[in-house]
Amino acid sequence: MHNLAIALHKKGYIVTGSDDDIPEPARSVLNKYGLLPQKPGWDPVNVTKDIDNVITGMNVNPDNPELIKAREIGLKILSLPEYLYELTKDKKRIVITGSHGKTTITAMLMHVFNALGIKFDFMVGSQVHGFESLAGLSDDSQIAVFEGDECLTSALDNSPKFHLYLPDIAVINGISRDHMNVFPTFESYLERFRIFTGKISSGGILLYFEGDTEVKKIAAEASDTLNKVPYKVHGYFQNKTGFYAATHNRVIPVKVFGEHNMQNLTAAKEVCMATGVTEDDFYAAIQSFEGISGRLQKLKENEKGLIFLDIANSPFKVKASVDAISSRYPGREIIVCLELHTYSGMNTNFLHLFEGIFANATTAVIYFNSYLTELKESNNLSKEVIINAFGGDNIMVYDNTVEMYSYLKSQNYCCPVYLFMSSDDFDGSDIYNLLE
């Protein structure tokens, strides 16, 4: 929401807002642009008849006093995805979806378009190098690139966000069990993607990863009015000099690595070609793509080892990242530190899906905050339950970060590769200071 506010401010709109709590970094960034509310909380006096649109965030409930006032005086009320569609309905909309890879693919597209001087609007879920914020809007662009989140639109609308963008070009990059607190069954989760294909404009393009069985089924069931384009993992190899994307007639050095990133790269290439970008231009631009914040992000490297940060939390994402690290650094000690934090990750009915994912790690340290088990209705979660679910004799489990870090610092690894994985912050730990 704060990124949208800044994008609209830069576009010349008058933007005001309210919230009960604004954490960092949103607080500092809003203050920088003069958009920080004067006081926290909600006050109907903020809502006046001269407002063109009221845009609601996830924490705006039906009994919100400002929302009630907006309805009483007849203001137009929209969710964030609804409003983005309204602003871009006359543009070619590209929506990247899937349980995994959508942020990276969106970032790759942003990087390539930017490098080639192509103007575009965007909304992405993580910081991308070269872009100040997660949203950008303009009057003179012909393309809009949106990361298509399958989570719910708002407290007022339980449809997935990606159902509201109505794409002209759509990508489904892979589907695996996720968001169990929102979608109680895998079938209900899959259904959201089936519905999504019906939202693609008639004659539009559906790009789908043919290596995923569920994605392939959904594509086959989609309307025949769509131009369906399957794609595969891009060819690649690695050696001591680096990691390379390869075809039958070209070799391209790239700064990202791992099989999953090569799948993401193919998706980005297919989208670019669907918008008129040539293969030569794509490969020239993608070479300088450095990845995104929190996705296999290298924090430090010296003669003593390497340290990566990754916000992966679902079984597929965790395994893909661990396998990418172990493949890129063969023979090295791979130390994985995973925080179970999401509703799905702390659900004992979900944990069995993590079984065997640390087979390629030397040591796997799993942390969970015991205080959150009650909050997230995970009272059956324990060290024993986690060890039994994950399996393997290389696993340590902690519910105390002091003890966990003490263990890590006591180990005499020889030039290890650390992979810290969390969608949170290991109970407020200063990871950067620890790693120094």
Overall geometry comes to globular
- In CATH, what is the class of the largest domain? Alpha Beta
Count of alpha and pi helical runs: 14
User: Based on DSSP secondary structure assignment, what is the total number of beta strands?
Assistant: 20
Percent range for β-strand residues = 15-25%
Radius of gyration: 22 Å
Level-2 CATH architecture of the largest domain: 3-Layer(aba) Sandwich
Task: Bin the helical content.
Answer: 25-40%
Distance between the termini: 34 Å
The class by helix and strand makeup works out as alpha/beta
Instruction: Name the CATH homologous superfamily of the largest domain.
Output: Mur-like, catalytic domain
Question: Stretches where pLDDT falls below 50 for ≥5 residues?
Answer: none
CATH structural fold name of the largest domain: UDP-N-acetylmuramoyl-L-alanine:D-glutamate ligase
Any idea how many domains? 3
- Largest sheet: spatial strand order: 5-4-6-3-9-10-11
> How confident is the prediction overall: mean pLDDT?
90
The largest pleated sheet is described as:
7 strands, mixed
